[in-house]
Amino acid sequence: MINKDFTERQIEIMEAATIRIDKFGIQELTIKNLASDLNLSEAALYRHFKSKNEILLGLLNYFILEMNERIATIIADTEKQPSELLIQIFTSQLKTFVQKPAIVSVIFSEGIFQFNKELSEKVSAMMSLMQKNISALILRGQNEGVYGKLLGPEPITTIIMGSMRMVVLKWKISGNKSNLVNEGKNVLNGLLKMLEKE
Question: Which H or E run includes 125?
Fold first, then answer.
């Protein structure tokens, strides 16, 4: 369980950090501002996290653990077809973004990670987790004769993940006004239809 990895206060701090990043941008995430948001002293905040960087790493770890639990639960259902599982995985991911839109600002902020090896490695680990699971389902679909084999699982996975990233970015830029889950499902359904073996 995720809550064993973080204390309640750490989770509270990380959630406040995502909200601040979402509202004001990464440049406004400082220990001073965060302590003020939470009505804590800076010294009290430092007892839970040593730095802003550690808060961001915690945030990414928290999201990866939560994402891993969700995906593992979905994939455990061996009765479902690969397409059903893919739709479930992405629907679950998009619903999480709708419930916690601030996390999108963290995950999709290349500026945060560009010059920080630890943070960029964490984002890379998150992408690898998603790629591994999507690729395995594509391969299963190809082996079962559901999907064509014109492309291998890796490029197909890249196309799917890139398309879903575009849907999320459009939603973010629109001020979260569009229906992210429906738009994501429509794009994914279209891609899966293109993959189906004739």
Answer: helix 117-143
Residue 96: which CATH number? Answer: 1.10.357.10
Please give the C-alpha separations between residue 169 and each of 105, 109, 172, 173, in angstroms, as whole numbers.
Answer: 10, 11, 5, 6
Instruction: State which residues form the domain around 159.
Output: 59-195
Q: What is the distance in angstroms between the CA of the first residue and the CA of the last residue of the chain?
A: 43
**Does 33 reside within a domain?**
no
Helices and strands (H, E) in the chain, number of each type:
10, 0
The domain total for the chain is: 1
Does the residue 69 lie in any domain? yes
| Residues 150-190: tens digit of each pLDDT | 999 999 999 999 999 999 999 988 888 889 999 999 999 99
- Total-model pTM: 0.85
